[in-house]
Amino acid sequence: MAISDLHVAYPENREIVEKLRPESDSDWLLVPGDVGEFVADVEWALGLLKERFATVVWAPGNHELWTPKDDPVKLRGEARYRHLVEICRGLGVLTPEDPYAVWEGPGGPVTIAPLFVLYDYTFRPPNTTKEEAMAWAHETGVVCTDEFLLHPDPYPSRDAWCRARLRETRARLDARDPAIPTVLVNHFPLVRQPTDILRYPQFAQWCGTVETADWHLKYNAATVVYGHLHIPRTTWYDGVRFQEVSLGYPRERRMYGRDDSPPLREVFPSEDAT
Ligand SMILES: [Fe+2]
Ligand SMILES: [Fe+2]
């Protein structure tokens, strides 16, 4: 099962999280990011889910990497990420820093690979520079809050942090057992096409990196699970199923009439929602 973008700072979302239950004692839960912004909120939600699901797998979203001014945890960038990884280890929740677990249940074996690769602004319009795309975003007032709250320390920029993460993640994926297919779990879409339907195309530059465009093929993905866009749906690229599993904000669910959609999605071996 999977669900992302829980955004538990919203009381309505917190209530939904409190009601999440597995369908069986053997269900695993994939949580690809945007659980919340405050470290205590992330710990609360993942701890609750770990009590209920046999295995919980987390990958960070951009929101966990913010340093909100009201959070008593003042850590920034890489140090904040490592702190969250340590909290997950205390809870028994798997992260991109742990050995990849292998699902041996129905449809298995598959290697469950939580990824943290961030974004590098390369989902900007073709034939534009990063500076031009950023200027367009500022002129039109569509600037991701990451620019103010997601600090890349100790890297000089978010794109430099992304490049480091790409290197580390490729090494981890290359070292896995190539005979076993993967379930790739990443906050951001690994391919660019899901961003084509964004209401504000300016936002795409904060949504991924072209460097992962062939990972679903290269790493033999049985399915790819992601969030961030708050557009829950299933699409196929090169014959591989990509599933956006976000809960999103209460106002979005009201706007798009999503209240009745099942909050948890079965993502492997089959799916029960599109
Ligand atoms: Fe989100
Ligand atoms: Fe996000």
How is this structure best described in words?
Helix 2 packs parallel to helix 3. The protein is globular and about 50 Å long. Helix 2 links the parallel strand 1 (28-31) and strand 2 (55-58). The strands form 2 sheets. The protein has a 6-stranded mixed β-sheet. A two-stranded parallel sheet has the order 1-2. The chain has a single domain (11-255), classed as 4-Layer Sandwich (Purple Acid Phosphatase, chain A, domain 2). The chain has 274 residues and is of the alpha/beta class. The mean pLDDT is 96. The chain is built from 8 helices and 8 strands, in the order H-E-H-E-H-E-E-H-H-H-E-H-E-E-E-H. Bound molecules: fe (ii) ion (2 copies). Residues 5, 7, 34, 61, 63, 228, 230 line the site of one fe (ii) ion.
Key terms for this structure?
274 residues; Purple Acid Phosphatase, chain A, domain 2; six-stranded mixed sheet; 29% helix; binds fe (ii) ion
Describe how the helices and strands are arranged.
Blueprint lengths: L10 H9 L8 E4 L7 H14 L2 E4 L18 H15 L9 E3 L6 E6 L14 H11 L5 H4 L8 H17 L7 E5 L28 H4 L2 E6 L6 E5 L2 E5 L5 H6 L19
Parallel strand pairs: 1-2, 4-5, 5-6, 6-8
Antiparallel strand pairs: 3-4, 7-8
The structure holds fe (ii) ion (FE2) (2 copies).
